[in-house]
Amino acid sequence: MKKEDIPQDESALKNVLREVVYAKDDDGKYTSALSQGWNVKKDALDNAWDDVNEKIEEAKQAVLNGEKSPVYYFKEKCLMDMPTITGYTGFWSFTVKRHFKPSVFKKLSEQKLAKYAKAFDITIEELKSPDLS
Amino acid sequence: MINEFKHIQSAHCENGVTTSLFQHHGVDFMNEPLAFGIGSGLFYIHIPFMQVNGGPALSFRTMPGAIFQRTAKALNVKIKRKKFRSEEAADDYLRKIIDEGKPVGCQVGVFHLPYFPKEYRFHFNAHNLIVYGYENGEYLVSDPVMEGVNRLTAEELNKVRFAKGALAPSGHIYYPESIGEVSDELLRKAVVTGIKRNVRDMLKIPGSIAGVSGIKYTAGKVRKWRDKLGVRKAGLYLGQVVRMQEEIGTGGGGFRFIYGAFLEQAADILKNDQLIGISEDITAAGDMWRNTAVQMAGIYKGRITEQKDFDQTADMMLEIYAKEKETFTKLSKIKLK
Q: The DUF4872 domain covers which part of the protein (chain B) (predicted)?
């Protein structure tokens, strides 16, 4: 890539940072310069977020329909996969899956709820009655 | 306690940490492409049966930590590294080393990094930054992908050092303990070793998923994604390929161009003009990767979504496979010393 071809599209990095890119100068020698962003990357990132938001929305509906517990919703909201949620809570993955069931979730001790609340960075109250509006 | 430290912005975090720490300890010729090349950073791997953020697990560079480790070893630098169980012990140790006048490399997760734009915060735990001082309960942080330096409270730093999930850092820190004289001969040897190891990684790893053959493997998958996953999900997968290739926070960095820049320097260090030709080839491969990204964007933006568009993407990747295979084969035949 030539230095003048380094894209300068507006992206989520605007006002935060410009990225270093290596490219060739007029003499055909490598140099580095800063890029504001590239639409190709921006669209890939926007797409990934659309997907994340869709999954959060689905999780919200599942809680409202009484199919899943708030643990499931907050796991999606915090972009966590199984290794991440088990890492933060210390529970086994089959335990976490059990806690996705509303009936099991209702009987959880304060101690266990506190672990989830800490992992999701919320209060126990928010965990018990999440704002799903 | 604040150590004197020169912040250097780089395309990729591990190259940046390596460059800054080495420069700090007097190896002033160190720069990002050189660290990347000596550390044999260029790679390709597509791991089947594994997912990252619900998409394909692939990487355009070598495994986290290897670039720093290899560069240190090649230049006879003794490295101290440590992981911790408790946050308190990790914090105490960090302060102790800073008090000794040494900036420290830290592995962190990006999800809770407050200075990162929110859009970039996924659970990615192999990011690297340098802590070079503290005052008033805040740490001074040089994150190589940022234009300037930042501050994190002790709580914020602890949170990212003890991020959980895949590749959890467990407070992992590392820093050069002692650096001897780096002679011209040692540097030449390091460059040659780096190149040879990279040739091995790209051409000689058995199996079909690593090195240049990995590119062919992904091309085969891309061809099937539309049928197997549907247009939308296939688009998301292609988006993940592009993000791995280019994006901060997931590993990116335009690695082919960085390697091209390294070979240009290597030609100078080893007084071997043949390497300039290889640098041109790898630059061409980098351009091909970018063209493929543009093609993939056409798909995930929904502009082109037919099977023939997926086939064309796969064909472009096969051309990259052929190009990189040819380039590294040529490189393997050049006598280096």
A: 155-331
Are the C-beta atoms of residues B55 and B240 closer than 8 Å to each other? yes
Q: How many CB pairs under 8 A join A and B?
A: 117
Backbone angles phi, psi at B253, to 5 degrees: 135, 10
Residues, chain B? 337
Would you state the structure tokens that stand for residue A80, as one six-digit string?
Answer: 């966590």
Cβ <8 Å between B53 and A81? yes
- The alpha carbon of residue B162 is apart from the nearest alpha carbon of chain A, in Å, by 9
Query: In angstroms, what separates the C-alpha of A41 from chain B's closest C-alpha?
Result: 6
ipTM reported for the complex, 2 dp: 0.95
Chain A partners of B287 at a C-beta cutoff of 8 Å? 1
For residue range A11-60, list pLDDT tens digits in order. 888 888 899 999 999 999 999 999 999 999 999 999 999 999 999 999 99
> C-alpha angle B217/B222/B226, rounded to 5°?
150
Name which of A36, A19, A9, A28 is nearest B283 in CA terms. A28
Q: Residue B306: pLDDT above 80?
A: yes
Backbone angles phi, psi at B48, to 5 degrees: -70, 165
Using the beta-carbon criterion (under 8 Å), do B260 and A30 form an inter-chain contact?
yes
Instruction: Name the burial class of residue B319, with classes exposed (0-12), middle (13-18) and buried (19+) by CB atoms within 10 angstroms of its CB.
Output: middle
